[in-house]
Write a structure and sequence with these properties.
InterPro entries: ATP-grasp, ATP_grasp_subdomain_1, D-Ala_lig_Van_CS, D_ala_D_ala, Dala_Dala_lig_C, Dala_Dala_lig_N, PreATP-grasp_dom_sf. GO terms for molecular function: ATP binding; D-alanine-D-alanine ligase activity; metal ion binding. It is found in: Cytoplasm. Belongs to the D-alanine--D-alanine ligase family. Pathway: Cell wall biogenesis; peptidoglycan biosynthesis. By secondary structure, the chain is of the alpha+beta class. The protein folds into 3 domains: 89 residues, Rossmann fold; 137 residues, ATP-grasp fold, B domain (D-amino Acid Aminotransferase, Chain A, domain 1, 2-Layer Sandwich); 61 residues, ATP-grasp fold, A domain (Dna Ligase, domain 1, 2-Layer Sandwich), CATH 3.30.1490.20. It is built from 12 helices and 13 strands. The strands form 3 sheets. Strands 8, 9, 10, 11, 12 and 13 form a 6-stranded antiparallel β-sheet that branches. Strands 4-7-5-6 form a 4-stranded antiparallel β-sheet, with helices on one face. Strands 2-1-3 form a 3-stranded parallel β-sheet, covered by helices on one side. A hairpin with a 5-residue loop joins β12 and β13. The two termini are 32 Å apart.
């Protein structure tokens, strides 16, 4: 999308709601994302307004005449399809992926199942519940392994398990967030993320970002609240490896039906430089530490221009099935 060149271009967006805050465990990060997006859109002359669904009814979006919304919510009730369904009912175009894609992308187990069917590489996994033989899972997947709640983001509730005796505690922690829990093979190697813009055949990868966290621990604190984590964009990769990583990231994005913008996390196994897909974020962070804006800057797309491009992609996804 070309930059806004006049007040009439900005006016074409109408009254815009920037949805942030919300009720998920990622509320704090969402507030940081939404505050940045709101400032960026306002700076371009767009009639943008803050809207926190935790404090206001979504019905007010229709009552107050919002023409479209930018979703800067993360986690449950914002990234999981429930909000998207409400906006479809209200008839208000929105940024990002639709109802089904958001729901599936939020669920790391469902996401892995689709990727495996599509022949895309992802670490081996097991689904845990109260009846699972945890020792057997540790034996099957090998140690260390990762235990996480499949419906949370920002590394909330995650444990790296180094001994079978730690499995029960790791499971109990993750089970405080979700009814079922995901155990995943630990892939030792370098950590990357690939931002993707667009939808369908037009989806394109932005430059790859490598993440180097202190002691390899890219946790909630190191993601958002310290400057100790190092980022390298474009990542230092040979062209063949970079090309393959971008290819599988875009294929992973398309396989789920993502659109607007998203971020696909990838591990590169140290033993053989084989890439493995970890998860997709259908409403990625837009904070000062966030990786999609970083990747966009590497190809000359500033933060404000990125926000405008994403807003321009807002649409109703289920319109063809109406009446």
């Amino acid at each position: 999308m070309s930059p806004i060149s006049s007040s009439s271009d900005a006016a074409a967006f109408g009254k815009v709601g920037v949805l942030f805050g919300g009720r998920s465990a990622e509320r704090e990060v969402s507030i940081m994302s939404g505050t940045g997006v709101l400032a960026a859109l306002s700076s371009r002359g767009i009639d943008a307004h803050a809207f926190d669904p935790a404090l206001r009814s979504l019905a007010e979006l229709a009552d107050e005449g919002f023409d479209r919304v930018f979703i800067a919510l993360h986690g449950r009730f914002g990234e999981d399809g429930s909000l998207q369904g409400a906006l479809e009912q209200l008839g208000i175009p929105y940024t990002g992926s639709g109802v089904m894609t958001s729901a599936v992308g939020m669920d790391k187990i469902a996401t892995k199942m689709i990727w495996i069917v599509r022949g895309l590489p992802t670490p081996k996994y097991a689904i845990l519940d109260d009846d699972t033989d945890l020792a057997r899972v540790a034996l099957d997947l090998g140690l260390p392994l990762i235990v996480k709640p499949p419906l949370e983001g920002s590394t909330i509730g995650i444990t790296k398990v180094g001994a079978a005796s730690q499995m029960q505690a790791a499971y109990r922690l993750a089970a405080t967030f979700d009814e079922v829990v995901l155990a995943e093979e630990f892939v030792s190697g370098r950590e990357f993320t690939v931002a993707v813009l667009g939808r369908g055949k037009t989806a394109r990868a932005l430059p790859i970002v490598e993440i180097v966290a202190p002691q390899g621990n890219y946790d909630y604190q190191n993601k958002y609240f310290t400057d100790d984590t190092k980022y390298f964009c474009p990542a230092d990769l040979d062209p063949a490896t970079a090309g393959e990583m971008e290819r599988i990231a875009v294929e992973a994005y398309r396989a789920l039906g993502c659109e607007g913008w998203g971020r696909v996390d990838v591990l590169l196994r140290a033993a053989d430089n084989a890439p493995f897909l970890l998860e997709v974020n259908t409403s990625p962070g837009m904070t000062s530490h966030s990786l999609v804006p970083m990747a966009a800057r590497a190809v000359g797309i500033g933060y404000e221009a990125l926000c405008v491009e994403i807003l321009a992609s807002a649409r109703l996804k289920m319109a063809k099935g109406q009446g």
